[in-house]
């Protein structure tokens, strides 16, 4: 019987599908399913086959596979300029999970640059389709009046959105984070600590993600019978702009702030320091995204952690299912963020309201 090396076939030659099947104790068709249709296999079988594939360093003949399937096995993902602030790198977790799960399904994720101007985005997709024959796309940074879903749908190009389409007629397949659930949980947490004047620092109205996070705050405040009038401030996702916006809320007796991002929360920190106040002790602050900076701030920032690894894998699962059956019912996945409590919101609400700015005598 021929000997098989730990990472290859007989005498070091490249491993074959038949050898992988023999080593794993399954049929060649099962190995093929593990590579091309993993959803058909039981989890234990799939894990065993993938382990043997890795041990033997098996690589299917890519050229023959492409010719047989008439597929590029490429998934396109458009990368926009990183927004300012501390939350921009959070999507790295999503991209790693997306790329890893696509690789396990036999695909590669191709990153390509797209312009910040929404109106020009479809041109970047059209160019990639002409040059690379990409099989499908994962969309992110979805927004109201997003032109990409309609553009792809009219051309019969499979896609999945990371983010809801926010009002589009035909939503397609999507995966999203339930921002409203997150800010709702933040309010519940702050109310349990005794806070009653809980402000919201978000983005200007019209952003699907921002409006969703504001809705969670507003509905939770209503459920607890707490006022919201005058307690909402808006800012672009910029630390200095956020500092200026939240400063107007501090003289109103605000004892806690829920921010739509960690970048906005950092702006809140700066406004509090300027006013001679301490985050966590005088005014509680809760951010959103649980960026790397959240645990490093002083005091450390409570924040809502998005399940980005799960989101990346879910996007791949939906997209591979769409590639396999273009006529299947659309699927939508809404994931729940987790509140990570740190020093900025770990103590009881102060017994006195936050004072307003001092005015000169006689004014």
TrEMBL record:
Gene3D superfamilies with a match to the protein in the record: 3.40.50.2300, lambda repressor-like DNA-binding domains (1.10.260.40)
Q: Does the keyword Transcription regulation apply?
A: yes
* Composition bias type Low complexity, residue spans: 344-356
Q: Which domain of life is it from?
A: Bacteria
This entry's Gene Ontology molecular function terms read: DNA-binding transcription factor activity; transcription cis-regulatory region binding
Entries under InterPro entries matching the protein? HTH_LacI (IPR000843), LacI/GalR-like_sensor (IPR046335), Lambda_DNA-bd_dom_sf (IPR010982), Peripla_BP_I (IPR028082)
Region Disordered, annotated ranges? 344-363
Keywords from UniProt, A to Z, are: DNA-binding, Transcription, Transcription regulation
Designated name of the protein: LacI family transcriptional regulator
Query: Any idea where the HTH lacI-type domain is?
Result: 15-69
Which Pfam families does UniProt cross-reference here?
Answer: LacI, Peripla_BP_3
Keyword DNA-binding listed? The answer is: yes
């Amino acid at each position: 019987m021929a000997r098989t090396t730990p990472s290859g076939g007989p005498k070091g030659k490249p491993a074959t599908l038949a050898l992988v099947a023999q080593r794993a104790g399954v049929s060649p068709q099962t190995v093929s399913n593990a590579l091309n249709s993993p959803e058909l296999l039981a989890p234990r079988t799939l894990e065993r086959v993938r382990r043997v594939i890795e041990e033997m360093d098996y690589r299917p003949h890519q050229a023959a596979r492409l010719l047989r399937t008439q597929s590029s096995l490429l998934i396109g993902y458009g990368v926009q300029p990183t927004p300012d602030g501390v939350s921009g790198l959070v999507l790295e977790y999503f991209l790693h999970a997306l790329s890893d799960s696509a690789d396990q399904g036999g695909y590669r994720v191709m990153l390509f640059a797209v312009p910040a101007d929404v109106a020009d985005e479809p041109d970047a997709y059209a160019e990639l389709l002409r040059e690379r024959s990409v099989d499908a796309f994962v969309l992110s940074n979805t927004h109201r009046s997003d032109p990409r879903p309609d553009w792809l749908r009219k051309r019969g190009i499979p896609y999945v959105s990371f983010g809801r389409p926010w009002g589009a007629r035909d939503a397609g397949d999507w995966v999203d984070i339930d921002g409203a659930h997150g800010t709702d949980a933040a309010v519940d947490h702050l109310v349990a600590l005794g806070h009653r004047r809980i402000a919201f620092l978000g983005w200007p109205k019209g952003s699907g993600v921002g409006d969703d996070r504001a809705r969670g705050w507003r509905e939770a405040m209503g459920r607890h019978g707490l006022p919201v009038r005058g307690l909402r401030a808006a800012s672009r996702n910029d630390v200095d702009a956020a500092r200026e916006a939240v400063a107007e809320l501090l003289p109103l007796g605000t004892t806690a702030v829920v921010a739509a991002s960690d970048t906005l929360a950092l702006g809140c920190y700066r406004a509090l320091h300027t006013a001679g106040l301490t985050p966590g002790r005088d005014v509680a602050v809760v951010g959103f995204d649980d960026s790397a900076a959240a645990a490093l701030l002083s005091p450390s920032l409570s924040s809502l952690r998005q399940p980005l690894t799960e989101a990346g894998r879910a996007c791949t699962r939906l997209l591979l299912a769409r590639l396999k059956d273009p006529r299947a019912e659309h699927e939508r996945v809404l994931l729940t963020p987790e509140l990570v409590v740190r020093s900025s919101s770990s103590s009881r609400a102060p017994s006195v309201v936050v004072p307003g700015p001092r005015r000169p005598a006689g004014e």
